[in-house]
């Protein structure tokens, strides 16, 4: 089976024969948007990189200070996608569903770009947001992802500057640029 990552919470499941499964929005799962991010998003802009799962980011509506992913995982299990540890297995693919955890990631989800994917579409964080999130995260592998994006992806430099400025990442950007260039 395969799934349309941008519609997983809407449960737009496609089986191996290409037939659509349940495509109704399940109101028990409060949601707005889903987007591919992390290393899995890089494949839309750079040469493939090693990753162990597909990162899908979701915006969840909640009036509570405590957010529960239980309704989402329960619904996925009901339609045949059980959780195993921190991932949901969709076919043979481990998918990690992550809540957009800060304003930068929320903005990246909201401004994702649409790409054709397996006869449908997927929404993917733009390279400018991937760079900003990698800067904010700051791990070694994130610096390598920044380098790959700068070398291989079409980067809108003015958009990148705007994002970095609004999210207070310009100093970090200057320091990383010196290291990778």
Describe the structure.
The chain is of the alpha+beta class and 181 residues long. The chain has 2 domains: 1-102 and 112-125, no CATH class; 126-181, no CATH class. 37% of the residues lie in helices and 21% in strands. It is built from 7 helices and 9 strands; from the N terminus they run βββαβαβββαββαααα. It has helices spanning 38-42, 70-78, 103-110, 127-137, 140-152, 157-166, 170-180, and strands spanning 2-3, 13-14, 33-37, 54-59, 83-84, 87-90, 93-99, 113-117, 120-124. A 5-stranded mixed sheet has the order 3-4-7-6-5. A hairpin with a 2-residue loop joins strand 8 and strand 9. Helix 3 (103-110) runs antiparallel to helix 4 (127-137) and helix 4 packs parallel to helix 6 (157-166). It starts with a strand and ends with a helix. Residues 1-33 have low confidence and may be disordered.
Strand and helix order: EEEHEHEEEHEEHHHH
Q: Mean of residue pLDDT?
A: 77
Helix content: 25-40%
Kindly give the count of domains. 2
Ranges where pLDDT stays below 50 over 5 or more residues in a row are 1-33
**Strand percent estimate:** 15-25%
Termini separation comes to 42 Å
Biggest sheet: strands side by side, in what order? Answer: 3-4-7-6-5
How many E-type strands? 9
How would you characterize the largest beta sheet? 5 strands, mixed
Quickly give the structural class: alpha+beta
Tell the overall outline.
globular
Compute the number of helices. Answer: 7
């Amino acid at each position: 089976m395969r799934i349309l990552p941008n519609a997983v919470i809407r449960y737009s499941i496609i089986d191996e024969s290409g037939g659509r499964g349940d495509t109704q929005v399940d109101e028990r799962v409060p949601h707005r948007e889903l987007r591919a991010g992390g290393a899995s998003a890089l494949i839309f802009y750079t040469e493939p990189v090693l990753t162990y799962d597909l990162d899908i980011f979701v915006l969840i509506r909640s009036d509570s200070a405590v957010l529960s992913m239980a309704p989402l995982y329960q619904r996925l299990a009901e339609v045949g996608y059980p959780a195993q540890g921190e991932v949901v297995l969709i076919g043979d693919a481990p998918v990690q569903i992550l809540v957009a955890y800060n304003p930068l990631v929320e903005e990246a989800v909201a401004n994702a770009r649409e790409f054709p994917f397996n006869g449908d579409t997927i929404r993917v964080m733009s390279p400018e947001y991937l760079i900003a999130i990698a800067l904010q995260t700051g791990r070694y592998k994130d610096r390598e992802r920044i380098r790959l994006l700068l070398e291989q992806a079409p980067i809108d430099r003015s958009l990148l500057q705007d994002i970095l400025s609004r999210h207070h990442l310009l100093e970090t950007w200057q320091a990383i640029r010196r290291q990778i260039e």
